Amino acid sequence: MEHILATVRAFTGALVVVPEPGGDFPELAWGDAFFYYAPDGRMPRHVQPYGTVVTKDLPGDAASDLDPPGRWRVNIHVGRTTFRDLTGEEPRGLVRTRDFMVTDSVLPHPVYGALGWVCVVNPGDRTGELVVELLRGAHGDALARLARRDEQGG
Question: pLDDT digit string (tens) for 18-59?
């Protein structure tokens, strides 16, 4: 997990937020990580992260069984085209059942798959490089979205 965090921190304009006890974030977020394109170093308002690392089961999101020690999941917004290339399905048309507890395999996100998110539990030899590539692409997409908003005066 530290390799993923360090890699994303090295992306130009990246902000990696890791909430800790005593901060402004709810306890539910403590220990997880949220990835933003934020060249000014401040967490953007009204913008969702393009990637996250989750270290525990969350209400409504326990299919990956992240509570046992050593389990964690990286989640990446990849968009419709990349999602289809990776899963063979349309994000809003998911029909196959999957074992979301499997490790080192790219899967639709168990909750946000329909929105173009994929996930990998404990990336390893099979998926480690791909995860970094997908995060780099999601970072670039976030930069492009910000540029479009700026051009439109928003």
Answer: 999 988 899 999 999 999 999 999 998 889 999 999 999 999
Sheet holding 117-121, edge to edge: 14-17, 33-37, 51-54, 73-77, 117-121, 107-108
Q: How far apart are CA 105 and CA 119, in angstroms?
A: 8
pTM of the model: 0.94
Kindly list the distances between the CA atom of residue 49 and the CA atoms of 11, 56, 79, 115, in Å, as whole numbers in the listed order.
Answer: 14, 18, 13, 13
**Alpha helices for 13-89 (secondary structure H):** 79-87
CA distance 83 to 91: 7
Q: In angstroms, rounded to a whole number, what is the distance separating the alpha carbons of residues 75 and 13?
A: 19
